[in-house]
Design brief:
This is V-type proton ATPase subunit G. The chain is mainly alpha-helical and 119 residues long. It is built from 1 helix and no strands. The N and C termini lie far apart (149 Å).
């Protein structure tokens, strides 16, 4: 009976060692799978980033022409308005200078309307 108990204990110890090995292997497998998942996720993120960058560059390239043509149109319009302003300046310059000089030089002395005359 002692021999049978000793053999049972020995079997239990071996089963416990085997279970510990299985648990250790499961832990290692889990760690390995987590590392693989991280690596795969990083790779997918990098591929997605490259895809979006290419998509953005294509979008930017397709809209650069639109921006350039809009800039050219604005520049032309600005030049036309600038020419109009210069023309108006040239045609009214003499009149404005004459009016300013008349106001400064030709002074008509009179009492201010708020000043009461002394009686």
């Amino acid at each position: 009976m002692a021999s049978q108990q000793s053999q049972s204990i020995q079997t239990l110890l071996e089963a416990e060692k085997e279970a510990a090995k299985v648990v250790q292997q499961a832990r290692q497998y889990r760690v390995q799978k987590l590392k693989e998942a991280r690596t795969q996720a990083t790779k997918e993120i990098e591929e997605y980033r490259k895809f979006k960058e290419e998509e953005f560059k294509a979008f930017e390239a397709s809209h650069v022409g639109t921006t350039h043509s809009a800039q050219v149109a604005v520049d032309k319009d600005t030049e036309v308005k600038r020419a109009e302003i210069s023309k108006a300046y040239g045609s009214h310059k003499d009149t404005v200078v004459k009016k300013l000089l008349d106001r400064v030089v030709l002074v008509n002395p009179e009492l201010h309307r708020n000043l009461k005359k002394a009686e």
